Amino acid sequence: xxxxxxxxxxxxxxxxxxxxxxxxxxxxxxxxxxxxxxxxxxxxxxxxxxxxxxxxxxxxxxxxxxxxxxxxxxxxxxxxxxxxxxxxxxxxxxxxxxxxxxxxxxxxxxxxxxxxxxxxxxxxxxxxxxxxxxxxxxxxxxxxxxxxxxxxxxxxxxxxxxxxxxxxxxxxxxxxxxxxxxxxxxxxxxxxxxxxxxxxxxxxxxxxxxxxxxxxxxxxxxx
Length: 223
Ligand code: BV8
Ligand code: ZN
Description:
This protein is α/β, with parallel strands linked by helices. The protein has one domain: TPP-binding domain (Rossmann fold, 3-Layer(aba) Sandwich), CATH 3.40.50.1220. Helices cover 35% and strands 19% of the residues. It has helices spanning 8-11, 18-23, 32-35, 38-43, 45-61, 66-73, 87-90, 149-161, 179-186, 213-220; strands at 2-5, 78-81, 96-98, 101-108, 115-117, 136-140, 164-168, 190-195, 207-210. Helix 9 links the parallel strand 7 and strand 8. The relative contact order is 0.18. The structure holds ligand BV8 and zinc ion (ZN). Ligand BV8 is lined by residues 6-8, 11-12, 17-19, 36, 82, 84, 100, 140-146, 169-171, 173-175, 177, 194-197, 199, 212-213.
């Protein structure tokens, strides 16, 4: 069994998803799709940097929920996630593939390869790459940016090889990540979906369990 997760996995830990960000007060007037893009960063690097600092502090305050810990306990499982938070790692999960990078690090925007972990409780402001002098930016994949080749290759392999794909808390609208569900299905995997609502993946489900991740996931993975 392989898990494939989106922001709904961390929702009960209090990590605001993009949609929450739009309704969540301070940032409501900004479009997350714009802020999480190279164009948004070019237009207003300070604003983007403040948005990530806000999200980093929220994640630092958050705790892994029952779904993270249930997944982490299954050390044999590979966990493919769209989430950039570090809650699966903090829950002790060993095999985590982050398709959209990590908010817990900054990297050089000029792709010189320099990357460094950051203190999520006291996130850094805009600064230049110590290696090449270009701007540093969060080590996440923005809209319009390609996914890390190695993470994508590993995730494709895991989804091709698995018997069951446990799809947790994703609306399955962002590609190419969401395409992994169809890829697993066409390779013969059973598709189990855990979500509070129907999603774009519902038509691919062999089993769809409507409920909260922190309640349903532990119930499925019970030893
Ligand atoms: C790419 C990191 C090409 C950043 C993220 C036009 C212009 C440019 C690009 C495109 C375009 N049209 C289409 C595209 C492609 C685009 C795309 O798919 N857009 C969508 C919106 C149509 N994709 C890309 O740009 C990707 N790159 O295509 O590159 C390319 C190729 C070669 C060379 C160069 C370029 C890159 C996409 C990655 C974007 N980065 N995150 C950051 O976080 O700051 S995406 C981000 O949003 C998340 O990672 C996640 O993937 C996505 C969705 O987030 P949310 O909506 O918040 O969460 P989710 O969808 O998971 O929904 C929450 C779900 O949980 C819901 O279903 C809800 O019911 C459920 N839920 C809630 N609570 C619970 C629950 N379930 C269970 N329990 C609960 N308690
Ligand atoms: Zn650099």
